[in-house]
Fold each of these.
Amino acid sequence: MHERLSGIRHTRLRFQCSPSHTESALYPFIRHLEYAAGFRPDDEPERRLDKLEALLGQAVKDVRESAALLAPLLSLPAAERYGAIELTAEQRSERTLKVLIDQLLGLAAKEPVLYILEDAHWIDPTTRELVTQTLGRIGDARVLVLVTYRPEFQSDWARHPQVTALTLSRLSRGQGTEVVRAAGGETLSQEVVARILRRADGVPLYIEELTRSIIEAGSTVGDTEIPESLQASLLARLDRLGPEAKEIGQIAAVIGREFGTDLLSVVATQPREIVDSALQRLVGAQIVLPGGSSQDGAYAFRHALIQDAAYQSLLLSRRRQIHQDIAHALEQKFPEVAESQPDLVAQHYTAAELPEQAIPFWQQAGERASAGFAYREPVAHFEQALRLARALPESVERSRQILGLLLLLGETRAQFNRIQEALETFKDAAELARIGGSPADLARAALGVEEAEVMIDRPERDSAGLLEAALTALGEEKTPLRCRVVSRLGQALFALGEFERGTVLMREASELARRLGDARALFDALICEWTTTAGHPRSAREFPELRRNCEDTIAAAEETGEPYLIGRALARAMPAFLEMGDIAGFEAFVTRLCELGERDQSSTSQEYAAFSFSTVREILHGDLGEAERFAEKALVAAHYIHGEVAHGVYGVQMFTIRREQGRLAEVAPLFRRFLDENPQDAAWRPGLALIASDLGFEQPARKAFEEIAATGFAFPIDAKRNLTLSYLAEVCARLGDADRAERLYELLLPYRDVALVVPVATVCCGSNARYLGMLAGVMGDWAAAEEHFEAALVMDERLRAWPWLAHTKYEFASALLARGRARDRGRAETLLAEAAASAERIGMPALQKQIRALHDLRC
């Protein structure tokens, strides 16, 4: 490739994966940036930042922002020059990968780019994700990506239409002969060449090495001894170079594919001139090549298999000793390397079978990777540390070490929304903490369990017991940690039905947090209070307190300065403002949340919430096409959050949209089958009853409704309760069931002052008063029905809830006509005409059909 492109102007980018860095995030790109920027060992950090900016200036527009994101990869201090970047790990990850791809596209805009990734079978997970995103973004850019890998490597890169997979077969006899000649074997006899080719079996590297081995042995005729393997060939060649060169080559192989002269000299305990002389002999034999990286005195083995052969030639005991010497040298003589690449030190101590020395470095590597942006890498580092720690002899220190690693692993998994895995890890940590950990460790584990149970909508029984134990262990000292434990315990107990004690604890936590002046503790307490009120009806008298709670929660989140917490606070406030009918406040919060997501460039919970609340807004205002677009975007963004919840939200949103579009028939067979296969699934039955009613299946609707009514409409007081009651109210009204209408009316009446909102960011269906009006009409209480419908008109108008206002006008008109008073006819006609106009404008064929049916009935 290089020879063919030698006469064509282009930029070449080369990235080399390493078997020693399969869990080091973006290792090939870090090494390339160091090389491309021209870093030298004696460069001060400021000088390196200057060089990085100069490199980025060739391809990106915002050099400072790009440098601020890439500098931590290169272990450069960025905050002093660029200021702190307040991003979550996921946000930093996405933006860093985007910068690297933008740099590539910027270079390609100037001239064609040859982008080479070597040995992808050793690729680290973050580099793999970067390549995947790169293939998705380069489109028609002038970029040729060339990736080499062994056959066992698997990826989905070939799914891109512009990607072609090429299998490189073993060389033919003629091609092998060319390689022999190119390796200096022009004088070898045909018989020797034939024996080389038979032994090498078409593998180019073997052909080259066997050829050089024979040439160096000084024999070119038929009785020449052909080495049995690559390792035998390399050992013979090393022996001919002399003992010093052989030892230096073997030590270098233990260091890695690339190695520096300084480290090599320290480990070999040889003067620099002896090491340099040995390296020159190795270079002359083409075993190693100079210039492995940007550093002076850097070398690399010509091929990874040559390094491996040299490594395997060492006795196991000698190999372990060299690994130990390397790790010790990195710690003592090269602290900057140990600090920037703790995983490298950990690998050498692990290979030396010194787990007690390796564990702290694995932990440091995990913490460093987690603080950056990677997910799989820190998890792998913590898991490796755990494996080593668990293999140590039983001791108090061992248990404490395992506990600390479990907490770090759990927090990393939670940070990246691997909630189920985090839950199991925190439970393991809690068990250890109960036995021999500190009160703070137990509290940390218990808080992790509780947070995970809330995220996956699981009863908080495990966390309640752990939080009780943690609270006892912490004692009476008033600290932010104790405050957080109290608030979460209150939430857990409330969710388990211990309403009185749960409420008392959450109020205690709020008061303590305010006294301590701790914004994070106060945020937790206020969020817990809000969570426990989800699904509970509110009266208009409670609106001022609710508004204050929302404002206090947002203020506490803003005081922490954490974008994630600010996003959560906004997400909690928005449904509350919708419930109160404050559309201006809701719209303002949606705008702020969207701005927050755009500023952070994230595809995490903030972006998901922004898209999902935008769906709520568009449904509310009647732009159903735009609502569907946002719902789809939210589902894509949900890749990084708890998928089950996100899919449930999407399902309710799409059901609401399709229902108004008159397209429920498209999914009727699916729901029928689901009902047949899950006859006892109570959670689905109210929705299924409504679908059957909408589609005109009266008998299945009546059957489902009767079965639900037989339970006394016993639904838990949770976030779904209001929506469930509204579904049943509609079915009851369609069936004309006056007896059941009275019970449903009693259950729904506490919601009369608020809009029907399904938190956190699912749907708002206008005023609850509409459903009360429908039930009152079935009961024949026309005065109550009229009062509720008038209230619904006001609320829906205030919310600009145009689809639901159209429904309210239709239902109100139907009730007026059913009452049968002549003086109501004019009002009913006006309401029907307005409803019909709105239904046509918005595109609500189902409602239009109902209006026509009502006209036909009157005629």
Amino acid sequence: MPLYMTQFAYTPEAWAALAKNPEDRTEALRGLAKKMGGKVVNLYYSFGEYDGVAIFEAPDDVSAAAVAVAASGAGHVKGTKTTRLLTAAEAVEVMRKAGSAAYKGPVSKP
């Protein structure tokens, strides 16, 4: 099953609620991913532009996008960025295919 990474940023209101009632959001995310036919690998929190990262499997891009949209729809997330992750084997296949392709870029005229 394809692997995805969703970076997310909570709203200030979500942080206030979590500060008052701390909770591990992993199980909530697991339930959502399961409804979309997927599986959560792990949930991490981070510093910086995004507050956390969810790594999860989904059957396809549409299901992965549905996980991100449904999670955001609850109103506690102000931004997300979802990236399809490739295994090392998939990346090698990409390299092989790219290596066998010819592509001519634009040429400047003098």
Amino acid sequence: MDRDKPYFFCGIGGSGMLPLALILRAKGIAVSGSDRALDQGRTAQKFEFLRARGIPLFPQDGSGITSPELIVVASTAVEKTVPDIEAAIGVGAQLVTRAELLAELFNAAPVSVGVAGTSGKSTTTGMIGWILHATGAHPTIMNGAVMKNFITQDTPFASAVVGESKVFISEVDESDGSIALYTPRIAVVNNVALDHKSMEELRALFRDFVAKAQSAVLNLDNEETAALADGREAITYSLNNPHAHLLARGLAPRPDGIDFEVYERETGASVPIRLNVPGRHNVANALAALGASRKLGRALEDAGRALASFEGIKRRLEVVGSANGVTVIDDFAHNPDKIAATLATLHDFPGRLLVMFQPHGFGPLKLMREGFIACFAQNLAARDVLIMPEPVYFGGTTDRSVTTRDIIEGVRGKSRIAYGFADRPACGAKLLEIARAGDRIVVMGARDDTLSQFAGELLASFKK
């Protein structure tokens, strides 16, 4: 990182870009940026927040890139034909990827904790960050989602925290292969499952990530992750395996959370944990966070006490509200594992589920077509309803050979109720038509911040 040069973020509003831009700005570095969502008039509050942090914003038309002194940051998803990238090349500005910049910051930290896995990264990162914060450390936290514990009136988009200690905790992404850039002191892996890449590619990426770490925290309940524990210096955790270093026992679900006891095999200690986020998957996330905290020298009792005040992550089974007996829930689930975990958690309690799932792109839809069909067929109850629009699309070239219709037809073929529509307004109209008192509407999907707005508008419609 060059502290003497200004940085320009192309797509600054993205979940991985915004916190990184905030970290640089907090270090006193000049930051500016552009975003397609800004040009399209979406999520205005987010961009007002960035401007209030002293970050100038420009249209994504190349007008903000006029000097070769700029370092232009873009995600791997940004195509070379985007005007900002063309402008950067034209003026001779340096181009770096978001992952390259984050890895540079992360690898330079004296104590780096990389949180990886197909599912649960954001929540686990938030849990570790909150445990460290609540127990007196002040870590830097780089997350891909907003952490509720760190939200203030002045910081509504708290996806990054700049701390004073040597600890740097970061969510690490495997979807674009950039996990290969990171050298963590502690590697946390929640699970490995099909998402953006083939299983062969994922196995190699996660194996190398763990091999580079001094120590690891690994989930024995996931077969792929358990295989990474062979012969390594690791804390293992499980909800089922008595050989794990940390074992969850006596799970007691609540509508707004879950209670359990964590047993530490090495010391024989047992500590009660009360989570205010629901679901067995969050027990696994909590065990991962406890394992990382133990590696960082935190007492199990102190870490467990901190978890009791963990408020969760935005868009992770977040209850938007209830009206006329209908509850609206906003959720980030977008791959089969995440969707299955959400549905299992909600099925612990009564009420029909009306699931509005917006796929996060045509590419993932094609890759996980059979996985989506099997997931919904196996995890929806007979009276639940699946409603889907076409995938989110904000421009660029893409293969549209698999569409929502393919998923809907497959789910119907497995004797589940499913409807497909061309757009989200039509999905909303169908939800308003069929919802009854006692139903729970779950708005699912990633890559599109306006899904939360859609959930809020649904709730407002029921209040009318």
Amino acid sequence: MNGESGSRSVGQQTSLRATLAEMAEILERARERLRETGAEGRRLDHAAERDDHTLAIFQEILSVPPLGLPPGELFALAMDRLSRLLAADRALLFVLDEATGRLVARSARGFRREDVEALALDPGEGLIGRVFREKRVQTLDAVAAPEVDPFIERFPVRQGIAVPVRTEGEVGGVLFAGRRALGAPFSATDMLLLLVIADRVGSALVHQHLLERHGEHLTHLREARALVDEQRPGREPRDLLARACEAACRLPGVRAALAVAGSDLASITAVAGAGRLRSVGPEQVDPGDGLLAEGFAAERPVAIRDLRGRVGDRAGVLERDGLRAALLVPLRTRGRVLGLLALADVEPREFSIEEVEFALTLATVTAVALDTRRGLEDLRGALGEQAALEAQRAEGEKARALAALGGGLTRELSSIFALLLGKSQLMLARAQDESLREGLGALEEAAWRGTDVLQRLLGLAEADHAVGVSCDLGAIAQEALAFARPRIGPGASPGGRRIEMTADLPPTPPVHGSAVAFREAIVNLVLNAMEAMPDGGTVAVQVREAGGGVELVVADSGRGIAPDVKPRIFDPFFTTRPGHLGLGLTVVQAVVLRAGGRLDVQTGPGGTTVSLWLPAERAREAAVEAHHPAEPALATAPEPAPAPPRVGSILIVEEEEGIQAAVREALDAAGHRVETAIDATTALERLAMGGIDVVVTDLALRDRSGLQLAAAVKERSPGSAVVLLTGWGRRLHEERVRGAGVDVMVVKPVQPERVRAAVAEALRLHPPA
């Protein structure tokens, strides 16, 4: 018994040890699994934390506005946030330098400043150059796959990544990030972060480029404005030409410019140069200069990349001076050539569209100034002969002088506004997008306003009364005040002092005239009052009924007008304020006199008061009926009326391509069969072939006037109707227009609906056979 009990005891102990060992093994495995589970959890927690951090950096980078920072500053700001996440201790932004065609460092992290300032790479050179040329992301592992790369050899990294920076569909630079310490390869998230930065930097580069171009355009506009201000009619022709040459050298960046006044090389009246051609005089311009002769004869600017490529021409003034590239622009206005502007450079070059357009603007402004000066000289002679006339007659001649002086410039701008109005109205009829329609509507309104001002300037000195409407002078004064205040600044004088403005505008009887002309006159008076108070003060505007009419008073609390200045305040181009043309009060006086009113100026140390009086509409109508009985008027383009459409064969005679295209597009839309000609000779040749129902012609043609063409049309084809396009309106004598054979007259600017209505009226008067 005792032996068996001992044996069982030993066996139980052995089994217990085995069980304990097995349990220990299970516990160990459980402990190991728990450790693995804890480690996995920590890894998941770490990954989740890293993802949250990455997402936060994404959001922070995307929140940085790319349009408000320079590209290099934006890159540095983004890399400051990414450096810890990417573990990148080297980062560099390369941007293409258009002047050299190389990639230059714009911003860096982990580099010495002196190293970055001299760093430039060629496209295709090493990792950076390949990314730029191939336009795709590339990585570098210097340990696994070493390569020969001058940039990496100079600035070693173990791992690197480079992404392209895109600007408007092209690659404008490269963003590089590298690690000097060996670590895990760059992940997809790292690449995505760098691509986001590259996109933001690319947007900043595009914005910077647009700002630079915008700055260049503003510079061109300021130069053009300064040129207009300085091209006074009283300047000598050589001074006008010299100013144009200086501006031509400064902005397009050419080395030489030459301007010649005259209808051709055989009739030169003045010569001026700038740059390398500064010393050229009339005696050095050869009448047989083939290059300049080509410029005089051209209808448009002529650009020549390399003068040495021309064959057969003997050397002219530009070639003799060693100049290679040339841009020739005729000085043309109102269909006449008054001279030539030549831009030249010492090396062959292409002239950009912006440079050509700027040269064309210079040429137009100079041509108008020359033409205006000639008109001024003629007008001064005429005024000298009328010096003995009474004061009222003298005032009328002064207004006529203003119209003549502005006639050249007004004529050129009238065609521009006609084109703007025609195109904007046609586009407005087709546009569906509301924002586009709003922009086109604003463009149309601005063109109308400019056209109204031009037409008023043209009619300032007319002997007869212009067609007007019933106007509320108080309401017009309110509009003028709203328009004048922002011209100086909200509630501030030019010197920065406070200006208070008061208005007393009760209801008054209506007056007769042009609302636009009255508004501009009141604006001029208010602006004069505000500018007369550099230390601040009060401008008071009052409207009241007085003496069978309406009186408007504008008073300021300024220093008043000096006694020696007051007699000349209504003289054209007389001013005591730099930067002003001196036409404000001249225009005001002409508007008031034309409306049958009177103007009075009282001034002293306490300020100036300007009073204008206009007759009430009832009194004016009685006077007009007593002295000017009604006469039949020439038919003008009627307002469109709902009637069955009638189509015909139309011939448009217009040399201005923009206006010709606008008229043609308007008539095409109405279903007419439209043909075009640029002069009267071509038009009469086409008319002889038959089949033309209506001839639509401009008044000013290159070979004869539109009235002469109308007479020829009636003589050769009596059944054809004639529609006359003109910007002169009532300045044309109606009997003369009617006697020439004109059936319908359309006053510019050309509106599509009015053109269509005019042609419909012509077809009604002369139905096609």
